[in-house]
Amino acid sequence: MGTVSLILGESGTGKTASLRHLNPKTCLLIQSIQKPLPFPAKDWRPWAAKDPHSSIYVSDLWQPVKMALSRAYDYGKRIAVVDDFQYIMANEFMRRGEEKSYEKFTEIAHHTWDILHHTIHHTPP
User: Fold this and answer.
1) What are the angstrom distances between the C-alpha of 107 and each of 8, 15, 45, 82, 125?
2) Does 91 have pLDDT greater than 70?
3) What is d(CA 77, CA 85) in angstroms, rounded to the nearest whole number?
4) C-beta atoms surrounding 27 within 10 Å
5) Exposure winner among 20, 21, 46, 95, fewest CB in 10 A?
């Protein structure tokens, strides 16, 4: 069972910058918005399935994010961080903006919950 931690703070308070203290060889960073890291990050490389030292996966789609979290341990990643998690929800909302039904809000909430629930209950400690 994985441990989920939520780190909240205003923009610019150092949440992403704190990644500088993690080893990219054992950490997977999932970016919901691709952006440069706010520190010298030569060892943080874009994800490549055949490169166990790659450490940055970019997606704002709930299913690929859930899959990346599920498979991180298989690649030697003991820590997984989802940066800007709120954009997974916001971007799905915007992609589905033309839908007229209120059901989309329930589905977006369910997708978000599914990521968290799966991470808590179906990932190694």
Assistant:
1) 24, 28, 33, 20, 28
2) yes
3) 19
4) 19
5) 21
